[in-house]
Amino acid sequence: MRDQRRPTGAVFLDRDGTLIENRHYLGDPAQVALLPGVADAMARLCEQGFALFLLTNQSGIGRGYFSMADAEAVNRRMIEMIGLGEDVFTGICIAPERPDEPAAYRKPSPRYILEMLVMHDLIADRSWMIGDSPSDWEAGIRAGITPVAILAADAPRELRARCEALGITAHGSFVEWVDAVIE
Ligand SMILES: [Mg+2]
Prior knowledge:
Radius of gyration: 16 Å
CATH architecture: 3-Layer(aba) Sandwich
Strand order of the largest sheet: 3-2-1-4-5-6
Oligomer: single chain
Helix content: 25-40%
Bound molecules: magnesium ion
Low-confidence stretches: none
CATH class: Alpha Beta
Number of helices: 7
Distance between the termini: 27 Å
Number of domains: 1
Structural class: alpha/beta
Strand content: 5-15%
């Protein structure tokens, strides 16, 4: 029997452009700006019993622009601003590789998602990958969970076309998606 308190589904969240404002090569916690409504939306997902994971590509580490410790400090600042406790994420994965390096966990690799589904006994049909980049959507597709595209009103036309070609549902923000799926 499944423990009723344990999550059965998961929401894998991209960081930059999904939870916080997208700034290129963010290695400074002082530059973290939470997008509006994110904390409340995450609280609602937690109340619904979803496990939340953070999966973020940070090639700035591989390029030598900032360190893994800097990326972790940025995450800590974001988690502090979310205000739902230090353990709001069941797991966090920072992928430090450059795009030209062999990828271990760098999206679109589905590896982290697949490992977490097994480790936490989560149901793929009740799990999503949310992000604003094709690499987010592809990671979700390859992991067998449902991808969700975050596309702002001014998103480039090619990006919107890519999303439509993949048949992925798009929302204007993470908060809009939560409003759509959580009653
Ligand atoms: Mg992003």
